[in-house]
Each structure stands twice: as C-alpha cells, then as structure tokens.
Amino acid sequence: MALRTCTLLAMAVGASALAAAPAMAQTAPGVTDTEIKIGNINPYSGPASAYGVIGKTIGAYFAKINAEGGVNGRKINYISYDDGYSPPKAVEQARKLVESDEVAIVFQPLGTPSNSAIQKYMNSKQVPQLFVATGATKWNDPKNFPWTMGWQPNYQTEGKIYGKYIADNLPNGKVGVIFQNDDYGKDLLKGLKDGLGAKAASMIIAEVPYEVSVPTIDSQIVQLKGSGADILVTIATPKFAAQVIRKVAELGWKPTHFLNNVAISVGAVIKPAGPENAKDILSTAYLKDATDPADKESPAFKEWEAFMDKYYPDGNKLDGSTVFGYAAAQTMVQVLKQAGKDLSRANIMKEAANLKNFEIGVLVDGIKVNTSPSDFAPIEQLQMQKFDGERWHRFGPVMSGESS
Fold it and tell me: Where are the alpha helices (H) located in 24-102, listed in sequence order?
C-alpha cells in the first residue's frame, strides 16, 4: 500500500512529492494502515506440548485487543505455528514466518533449544525475536544479538536463589540434581552452583541429565535416590517434572525437593502428579497464582478471570501458563503502544528496550518490567514459595540473583 501511494503521488505532483515520502509514518514488513502481523512458534505437540497453552492464551489476548479496537488503530494478525519442541522445525517455522508470511516480529517463540536454533537467523534478518519464552541467560546480550530479548527471570538467577537458600538453610545437605541436557538445564544448574558458592563441590553429590526424546526418566530418579542425596533439585519441563514427583513418591523417598519455576503449574504438573505427592516442594514465583485465594481477590486477577471466561473459555484456569501468556501479551501490547506510528522493526526493538517500571497486575507485588538498551532482561526478581498439598504459598522477600 505504501509503495502504491508513493507512485500515485509521483504521477500527480512529480519528483518533489516523492522526495517528501520518507517523512511519512514509518512502516515495516507485516505492517499496513490497518494491521500488524505478529508471528509465534509454540510446541503444540511433542514433549513440551503442555506449553502450547501459552500460544493459545496469547492468541486469545490479541483477540481481546482487536475487539477493543486494536493498537493505535491497527488490529493484530497473530500467526502461530507448531515446532514440536524441535530445533530444526523451529528454524523451518521461523523462515516461513519471516519470508512467506512477512511478519513484523516473532514474539514469544518458546523453548531454549528452539530459540537457540533461530537466534542467528533472526538477527541476520534484523527481525525482532522478542520476549522469548525461555529463561536462558543468553537472551540478555544486546551487544551481540540486538534483535533478541528475553522476558521471564533467567535460569541462572533462579538457580542462584535455590543455591543460596540451600547454603543458608540446609548447609549439611547432600544435593542431587536432575536436569534437561541442553542450554536450559545447564544454565539453571550453573546458577545453582553459583548460589552454593564454595560449598557446591562438596554438597552436590549427583548430577543426572535426561534427554527430551526419552519417554520416561524414572531410572534417573532411582539413580538419584541411590546416591544418598537428601535434597533434590528438579530442572525439568512439565511432562518430566510430573514424572519426577510421582516417582519420588512411589519410591518413598523424602528429600527436600526444589522444583524449577517453569514446571510449577498446578493444572499441568501438580494435579497430574498428585497434589499429595507434591506437598512441601519448594520453588520460586514471579507471577501470581490462580489457586491462591488472596491473589484471586485482586482486581488484576478478576480482570484475568473475565478475560479467560470471554476469550479463552476452554482454557484451564489452574494452569499457570495461561497467566504467563496473558502477562507476556500485555508486555507486547505496551511496546506497540509506545512505538506509536513508527512500527519499523528497529523502532519496535527500541521501544522494547525502553520499558520503565511497567506494571502488570498478575506479577507478584513489587516486581515490575524494566529494560534498557544495555539490559534485555525485563523481569529479574523472584520470590520463594512452598506447596502445601493444595496450593502454593509465597514467603520471604522478593529477590534477584544478586540480592538473594
């Protein structure tokens, strides 16, 4: 449309008018006067399919925004593809979104392996790979990858908090770790060791990896129990986290159990594993919890509940991934609002790196979204929490990896 308009102007008033065209509102691939195309890649199938709820929630939230008139007069055309949590498939889908669909950005692509596979491509094409749904520390690297930005607290920050908690409260414990054998698992494991500090070498007595391609990790849990560990740190996605909880209970093992944040969903992990089996598990939180009566009474959660009822009635309100998708989508809409009429890819990234104390009601109180050109980590704080057999209870101060 922009090219056609410029041609007509040139025909009508000559080269002087055409020369003035650059002063008009900036647009980009995927942007017209009435819409902006936003791409997404999610594992709707495969070993991490529980996270497909995030992509669906984002689509529902954008439908809500469109029903309310869109953003600055433009409706969001949301295109979401399944990669099955497979890096080669993620590359294929990213190319399709960028080269065939011509989206303005790829928003919330999920998973450390998938995002690692597309990161160089997205940066070479100068297409925003924005608010990726993975906590790997590598997404906060604006110098080398200026078109990639994270969203959630990074795994090293989370691991440091667990390590510091263990060192302070369980100094004589023997730690066993099960972790996904990729950048995600290794990132959180590094944070755990950093948090334990000098005690890491003596306290961690077993580190057992697993591959996402295996059907079960029961044998790894048997191995960890046999190591003599009395503290278990689980670094796993929902499917495997539920297996860990069930197997630990089946073995009659009673370690102090730490479960990483990406697998704390009551609906997707705890209920399938058996709430009674998850009693006393420790984790962290940065999002409020739909199972917490106090959180449910907050105005922000009532808004979320109304959104779910109207735009995603089939969604499971006990699945924390719906809260995650809702909050991430709010962040994206804020960036588009700040970008105003200039929806060039460069300006979208500029505004993504200019979020100042942005408040999202479903974030834990005291946690706000902040970015800068040198800080591509929007959320950097967490709070400890414990599962009581029915729901999570947060406790202690809001912490960062440095202040924990």
Answer: 52-67, 87-95
- Nearest one of 60, 307, 55, 153 to 299, comparing CA atoms: 307
What are the chain's domains? 2-153+299-373 (3.40.50.2300), 155-285+384-399 (3.40.50.2300)
| HEC-encoded secondary structure of 278-289 | HCCCEEEECECC
The pLDDT assigned to 115 comes to 98
- Do 228 and 205 contact (CB within 8 A), yes or no? yes
Give the pLDDT of residue 400.
Answer: 84
Q: In the chain, which residues have pLDDT < 70?
A: 1-27, 401-404
Compute the chain's Rg from CA coordinates: 22
Distance between CA atoms of residues 151 and 232, nearest Å: 27
Residue 146, pLDDT score: 98
Q: What is the DSSP code string of 162-219?
A: HHHHHHHH-TT--EEEEEESSHHHHHHHHHHHHHHGGGHHHHEEEEEEE-TTSS--HH
The terminus-to-terminus CA distance of the chain in angstroms comes to: 53
What pLDDT, on the 0 to 100 scale, is given for residue 212? 94
